[in-house]
Amino acid sequence: MVDPVTDLGRQPRGSEPTWFDSIYFTSSVKANGHDFGIQVQTRVLPNIDEVAYRWTFAVTDKTTGWHDDYEAVVAADDYRWTEGKLDIKAPGLSWTGNADRQSVKVDTPFGSLDVDMESTGPALNYASTGLFNLADVPAYEFALPEMRTSGTLAIGNKKHRIRGTSWLDRQWGELPQALTRWTWMNLSMPNGDKVAIWDAVGEKSEDSWATVLHPDGSYDVVDVEPLAKDASKPWVSPETGQTYPTRWTVRIPQLRTELAVWVTGTPAQEVQSETPEGGYQEATAAFAGKYNGKKVSGETYAELNGNWRP
């Protein structure tokens, strides 16, 4: 249902009021004795004039706990995302390439990024086809879950030569108005499996599941126990009043999996945004426990979007 080659380009505009088009990546990189988490996203909401075109950049130093983020709202005339290929240009942002190699440049008041990313594994199609229901509304999504990453991260006047890996995600479709909030996690297992978790909470439902891509290209699509059940250690944002959990237990019975997941660096990783909620969480995190009955540990991101106020 999706094509990682042509679908990196912008999608034809949908008619739904909340229709969106998004591409983003999260990175775990190292430099000069520091572990950094990086997130870059651009999202188009063409039917919402006030914030139709925007991009964000967030950096967390997991070693020191420092974090900063930036969101740019761009005029339509200053934004370009070509259909059929990855060619994005906006003030402060350049993102070009294909499903094999990409180049990303970002410039913000607090820092800049100039990286090259090379895909070293197969694409991951969510639900194995790239098409699934999100609160009973069709959604399209795929990932390039293993991208070798290198380049320069500048924070203030200090430049870091960084190396590590990135997980790129591509998503589009209608954002269902019945969707209250969601949690998303991307876990790379020591055996090469890539696990993408969706926990979508609607007005009257909670749908929690995972897509597992194995190194040979085969899939498992499995139920996950709802994450809210054991979410704990809340952090309250002083800017928006949102309350975000910072610890979870991920249980996947079909895969004999139970993982503790916790936010690293600092709980204050809310990206300030021109959204009704005022922000959302893109937090560096770590996990440890058992996967397929074997002990594992690693790094992930925890994305929390929507209304998390108690």
TrEMBL record:
**Organism for this UniProt entry:** Streptomyces aurantiacus
Q: Which Pfam families match?
A: CrtC, Lipocalin_9
List, for all copies, the residue spans of the domain called AttH.
Answer: 24-174
Q: What is the lineage of its organism?
A: Bacteria, Bacillati, Actinomycetota, Actinomycetes, Kitasatosporales
Residues passing through the membrane, by range: none
Q: What is this protein called?
A: Carotenoid 1,2-hydratase
Q: Which Gene3D superfamilies match?
A: AttH-like domain
